[in-house]
Design brief:
With about 300 residues, the protein is an alpha+beta fold. The chain has three domains: about 130 residues, DnaJ domain (Helix Hairpins, Orthogonal Bundle), CATH 1.10.287.110; about 55 residues, Sandwich (HSP40/DNAj peptide-binding domain), CATH 2.60.260; about 90 residues, HSP40/DNAj peptide-binding domain, CATH 2.60.260.20. The chain contains eight helices and 13 strands. The strands form five sheets. The protein has a four-stranded mixed β-sheet. α2 runs antiparallel to α3. The chain is extended and about 70 Å long.
Length: about 300
């Protein structure tokens, strides 16, 4: 692991933003999650590796140290004394048995070799507590006796807005309150059970963390001349201005139009990607107009 590049493990560039690193880790963590890959040792090892990489790259100070010294700075016996070059590392990278805040997670540090759990995550923070916050419920592969698990399916907008669902558990009907902002694969602790939330995809909205991505099509003439465009959001339609000369693939940000964070009133953003439509067939007059435009010496290219 020490010889592997943390950026490559997460599939991001060395200039990636903090959000890009977080998004990449989240995707990989879900992919290699032990609860989704029961008995798959290779997936378990991959999960450990991406978790370790994120714990370094997801922290600005640790990332700076990694960029300067490489992965060797985070190994036992690294230069810089008992704590290594950044204070908290050494024989036990986190000092053992301590709780703390790490990026979006609240977690408990494991002791040397992960003595508190059934998995050894390379001396890094205990993933059981990370995923308890990450998935919004209990640890999906807990250290204690496994809790009974039930699945509940909800629509995309129900996940965004929150909903109360009636489910039958052990022959008894129960009402499960699902908080706004919950994502696919999240777990909710309900009495002595774990409820796995399965969110159906939306035909229009694509969710990336707490952000939403949509695509809007406009004619190339509208892109060239500028226009106003109605855009659908999770709160209803809003009008946005398309500036003259907008290029294909332009992305526009609608601040605060994304998903509400679980346990918070903070909201993500919506990103609108503009797809410029080029007509496949033109009448004679249209062709003449475009030919005149192309011959205009004061213009370069289409727009």
């Amino acid at each position: 692991m020490a010889t592997q590049d943390y950026y490559s493990l997460l599939g991001v560039s060395k200039t990636a933003s903090a959000q890009e690193i977080k998004t990449a880790y989240r995707k990989l963590a879900l992919q290699y999650h032990p609860d989704r890959n029961k008995g798959n040792k290779e997936a378990e090892e991959k999960f450990k590796e991406v978790t370790k990489a994120y714990e370094v790259l997801g922290d600005p100070q640790k990332r700076q140290t990694y960029d300067q010294f490489g992965a060797a700075a985070f190994e036992q016996g690294a230069a810089g004394g008992p704590g290594g070059p950044f204070g908290g590392f050494g024989g036990n990278p986190f000092g053992g048995g301590q709780s703390g805040q790490y990026g979006p997670f609240t977690y408990t540090y494991s002791t040397n070799g992960g003595q508190g759990g059934g998995f050894d995550f390379g001396g890094f923070s205990d993933p059981f507590d990370i995923f308890e916050q990450f998935f919004g419920g209990a640890s999906p592969f807990g250290r204690a006796q496994r809790r009974p698990v039930y699945a509940v399916g909800i629509d995309f907008m129900e996940a965004v807005k929150g909903v109360t669902k009636k489910v039958t558990i052990d022959g008894k009907q129960e009402s499960i309150k699902i908080p706004a902002g919950i994502d696919n694969g999240s777990r909710i602790r309900f009495e002595k059970y774990d409820i796995v939330v399965e969110v159906k995809p939306h035909t229009k909205f694509v969710r990336e963390g707490y952000d939403i991505v949509t695509e809007e099509e406009i004619l190339f003439t509208k892109a060239a001349l500028g226009t106003e465009l109605p855009v659908e959001t999770i709160d209803g339609k809003v009008m946005i201005r398309i500036p003259a000369g907008t290029q294909p693939g332009t992305t526009m940000r609608l601040k605060g139009k994304g998903v509400t964070h679980v346990r918070s009133t903070t909201r993500g953003d919506q990103y609108v990607r503009i797809k410029v439509i080029i007509p496949k067939s033109l009448n004679k007059h249209q062709k003449e107009l475009l030919e005149q435009f192309e011959k205009d010496p004061g213009k370069k290219g289409w727009f």
